[in-house]
Structure formats: structure tokens, C-alpha cells
């Protein structure tokens, strides 16, 4: 059994998020029916769904949150025994408290994490930014000199985000989320960071990656930017393809994250989210997936041109028109017409640069 999700992204009317039993059923499914309570995958999924609900200001019934009471009863011991997962554990607790489950546990956890100096175990700036964000939400502001400047420096190189690189894409959008406290604080981003988001949006649209494009759109909304109609319409169409099945998905290989992010965008735009959750028990989220993305077709076609490749979109459209499918051509044409910064995106995506001849020989001399 499954139900179809029908959503609209472009309405700006402010409506409350779903207050019916849908949220109760949604949280019950994530807390009880997808993974073993407390394992890393359970922590990840539940941190995501609770974090999105908290970020969009959902009014979650107290009865719906009660499903997490067994986790909270064990959370302190879990943190002490599995401190390597401290960010995930604290994330779940912080968001449960934000949604109206008073425990006081997040503050005690934050104090212990700081005392034990677990932030020093982090290997990169994005993880440090998440730690700083979570500790602040738990009532402990921690100074990390230079962190904001380094994040903005990373995010201010637009050409980085014109190429397929899942790690860079994830880091960009999450840097924006952490800097803006998931939309809770006013966020004034440098123009180059906004250009980076638009570059990544162009890439995600060409890839027909609704999951990534929705996160880009949420980040743009947090920065006070309007969404391109092309992207909003595409995401609305994709949202209409979701199926929620009453079957478990024990390995998280379904489209749950894509579904959650699409709902997050709905809520960020002031519309009702999570309104069509019917039934109870296990849930898996299904979405048709393209076998070959238009981005891959275009990348292969450009590479095949060799020295004839240029960074001029009009010229490369003519050169590649017979090398890509009709669908890939149509997606690229719509991107050229409706994606901001498409010309700049294509100049970087075409990758026309070459290493200087003889550089390796000179290095050996």
C-alpha cells in the first residue's frame, strides 16, 4: 500500500505546519520502525527529521514526542559509552527539547562534551561548525577563532561548485545552515557565496538531483533570496512522484532524505508540510531514479570533444546536440534559460583549461 505526495512549492501564504496525526505517525515510523533505536543510522535519520521539524517551527503534539522517551532515558549512558557519536546524540536531544520535550539533558551533555574536550577530536571545519552550532543551541557558546572566516573562504570560490563533488556540495549547504542557525538568525552572505549556491543549483538541476537542489533552495531562502521559478517548479513536480509505502526499509536505501528535504523547503516557504502521512507503522519513501543523469551525458560529451571543447554554451550546445539524449538536451536548455549564473556555471563545467606542456619535465630537472 502506498500514498502519493502532492505538494506545491511556490505559494507564499503563511500556513501552520501539519498538526494532525501525521506527525505522530511520521515520528513513530522513524523512531520505531526503520532502524534499531540508538544505532548510528537511527541517530542520523532521527536527527534529520527532528531537526527539520524544529527548523520549520512545527508544532508537534506532546504525544508524538513521547515515542522518544526510551531513547532519552538511555541517552546519557549512550553518550558516555559512545562519545564518538556525540554530535548525533546531542543533535537528537537538542531538537527534542526545541520541539517541546523539556529534559534539561542537552545542557548537561554540552558541559560534559566541553569538559572532555571532544570538539578537539574533529578533523575538519564543517564538523567544528556543527559542534559550535549544537553547543550554542544547548546553551554553551564556544569560541572557535577563525572558523567563520574559513567557512566563508571555502564557500566564496564559485567554480568549486560547478563540478560534481558530493563532499564539496554537502559542505557548502551545511556551512550556510550552521552559519544561519538553520534559518533562525538573519544571514547576510557575501555575493560570492550566493554565486556559489547558484552554481551548485545549476549543477543539481542539470543532474536532476532534487535532493541536492532542495537543500540549495533552503540555503538560499535562509539567505533571504528568491528561488528561480525553474527550480521551484522542478522540485514541485518531483515531490509529486513520491510514494510512501507501508513497508520497512531496514537499510535506509530509500528516498527518505529526499522526502524530508522537500518537506523542509515546503515549511521554509511558510506552507504546510508533512500533511499527507496516512496509516501507521513502517514507512519507506520511494522516488523513481534516472539511470543516467543529463549531467553525466553532458560531461561525457564534452570530454569526447577533446581540443575542440570550449566554454561557450551556444557553441557547445551545437557541438553536443547529437551526442546527448533529447532529455539531456531539454534539461540543459531549460537550465540555460532559467538557472541564474548558468553561463558562468558552464564556463567552469566545460573544463577547457590544460596543464602547461613540459611542467613535469621541468619539475624533474
Describe this structure in words.
This protein is mainly alpha-helical. The protein contains 18 helices and 3 strands. The chain has a 3-stranded antiparallel beta sheet with strand order 1-2-3, with no helix packed on it. The N terminus is likely disordered.
> How would you classify the helix and strand content by structural class?
mainly alpha
Radius of gyration: 22 Å
Overall outline: globular
Q: Cα distance, first to last residue?
A: 69 Å
Helical content (DSSP H or I, runs of 4+): 55-70%
Tally of separate helices: 18
Number of strands: 3
- The order of strands across the largest sheet is 1-2-3
What does the average pLDDT come to?
Answer: 90
Element-by-element helix/strand order? EHHHHHHHHHHHHEHEHHHHH
Oligomer: single chain
List the helices and strands and how they pair.
Blueprint: E1 2-4, H1 21-32, H2 40-55, H3 62-65, H4 69-81, H5 86-98, H6 105-115, H7 125-137, H8 147-155, H9 166-179, H10 191-207, H11 210-222, H12 229-239, E2 243-245, H13 256-268, E3 284-286, H14 294-305, H15 313-320, H16 326-338, H17 342-350, H18 359-364
Antiparallel strand pairs: 1-2, 2-3
Amino acid at each position: 500500500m502506498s500514498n502519493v505526495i502532492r505538494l506545491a512549492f511556490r505559494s507564499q501564504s503563511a500556513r501552520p505546519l501539519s498538526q494532525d496525526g501525521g506527525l505522530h505517525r511520521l515520528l513513530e515510523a522513524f523512531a520505531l520502525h526503520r532502524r534499531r533505536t540508538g544505532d548510528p543510522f537511527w541517530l542520523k535519520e532521527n536527527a534529520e527529521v527532528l531537526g527539520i521539524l524544529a527548523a520549520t517551527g512545527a508544532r508537534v503534539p506532546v504525544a508524538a514526542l513521547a515515542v522518544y522517551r526510551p531513547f532519552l532515558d538511555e541517552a546519557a549512558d549512550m553518550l558516555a559509552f559512545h562519545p564518538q557519536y556525540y554530535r548525533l546524540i546531542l543533535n537528537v536531544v537538542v531538537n527534542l527539547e526545541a520541539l517541546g520535550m523539556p529534559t534539561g539533558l542537552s545542557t548537561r551533555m554540552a558541559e560534559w562534551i566541553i569538559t572532555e574536550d571532544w570538539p578537539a577530536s574533529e578533523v575538519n571545519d564543517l564538523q567544528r561548525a556543527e559542534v559550535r552550532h549544537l553547543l550554542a543551541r544547548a546553551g554553551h557558546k564556544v569560541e572557535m577563532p577563525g572558523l567563520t572566516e574559513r567557512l566563508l573562504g571555502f564557500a566564496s570560490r564559485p567554480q568549486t561548485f560547478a563540478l560534481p563533488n558530493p563532499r564539496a556540495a554537502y559542505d557548502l549547504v551545511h556551512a550556510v545552515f550552521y552559519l544561519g542557525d538553520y534559518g533562525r538568525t538573519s544571514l547576510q552572505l557575501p555575493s560570492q557565496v550566493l554565486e556559489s549556491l547558484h552554481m551548485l543549483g545549476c549543477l543539481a538541476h542539470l543532474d536532476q538531483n532534487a535532493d541536492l537542489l532542495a537543500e540549495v533552495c533552503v540555503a538560499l531562502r535562509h539567505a533571504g533570496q528568491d528561488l528561480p521559478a525553474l527550480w521551484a517548479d522542478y522540485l514541485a513536480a518531483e515531490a509529486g512522484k513520491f510514494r510512501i509505502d507501508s513497508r520497512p526499509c531496514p537499510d535506509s536505501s530509500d528516498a527518505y532524505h529526499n522526502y524530508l528535504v522537500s518537506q523542509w523547503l515546503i515549511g521554509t516557504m511558510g506552507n504546510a508540510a508533512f500533511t499527507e502521512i496516512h496509516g501507521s507503522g513502517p514507512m519507506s519513501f520511494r522516488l523513481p531514479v534516472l539511470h543516467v543523469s543529463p549531467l553525466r551525458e553532458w560531461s561525457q560529451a564534452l570530454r569526447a570533444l577533446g581540443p575542440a571543447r570550449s566554454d561557450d554554451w551556444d557553441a557547445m550546445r551545437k557541438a553536443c546536440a547529437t551526442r546527448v539524449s533529447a532529455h539531456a538536451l531539454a534539461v540543459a536548455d531549460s537550465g540555460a534559460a532559467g538557472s541564474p549564473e548558468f553561463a558562468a556555471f558552464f564556463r567552469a563545467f566545460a573544463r577547457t583549461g590544460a596543464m602547461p606542456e613540459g611542467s613535469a619535465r621541468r619539475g624533474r630537472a
